[in-house]
Predict the 3D structure of the following.
Amino acid sequence: MEISREHLAHNLLVLRQLASPQGDIMGVVKSQVYGHGVATAALLSSLGLRKFGVASLEEALDLKKSGVEGDIYILGGFFPWEAEAIVAEGFIPVVSQEEEFESLVKAAERQGRTARFHFKVDTGMGRMGCLPRNFTRSFFERLSLSPAVALCGVMTHFSSAEKDPEYTEWQFQKFLAFLKRWGFWGKSLEYHCANSAAFLVFPHMRLALNRIGIALFGVSPNGEPELAKSLGLKPVTSVRARVKLVKVLPPGFRVGYGGTFVTSRTSRVAVVALGYAQGLFRALSNNLEVLVRGKRAPVIGTISMDQVMVDVTHIEGVEKGDVVTFIGRDGEEEIRVEEVARRGKTIPHEVLCSFGRIRHRVFVE
């Protein structure tokens, strides 16, 4: 995996400009920074990003060890026994229920610290967050008045921002209504609801803080490359591997496990050192193109654990050691994350996270 410093810095600048003047950016760097490795979060920190969102305490600890500077938000909730470490490390957890809140208060009181936290309301995702109808006056008073903790923000999360604008707008209005009903609105708090999908498409949902994950890497959350391109975002990620062997197979030869592909002609086949163990979905077997010497070539046969076969009959001079591009640019041709996601019938986020299994990552300009 190659990670472009230049494109990452460019994207961060573009996203900050879109958020300003009223808002800031939180880089959502969970799942090993969407498969790019914790060192990429440290790179974002060196570029001036100071707010980072992760899913769990474990991810927060990994991020802090990497040298990241700034606030680390734990977005995915926490267990009561994790509260002590969260307070001690100065992380900012998101609270969804009274049990979490009380464990945070007790940990802060024991340590003699003031623990910062954000509160999450569930406006229609059905995942983390407190349903508005379950939010009580007593809970509100505890959130607002407990001296051992400091409420710093209120958030919600959209379920369908990439494909359902009406439902997203309904959630947004429900969020605003909640903030106003309980007197949160107008205070010095970090309000946030926009993920990458909402942030790119709905400017009026860009609030004091915006949670940006996949857009940092120049990838469209809705799977349509034109969205990212239209805003000037550039692809950050390339995935490449080398040819380990080139061989000639006769017509009628079965290729790969299960013989799912049969040659119809004399074929030159390149065996490439990448497979599902490195994150290449097996479901892409016989349904993926890669770049070899600047030309597209089809994957043939079932993708193996560590290898895949590519038909290079139409490409002159392919030999052992040649670089094969699975995601990225080679000459005039480009394969984007969104294309791989479409072929695999999934979302770009899963494609990037799957390549987190790749052990060798390098930063390039």
Remarks:
- The first helix runs from residue 5 to 19.
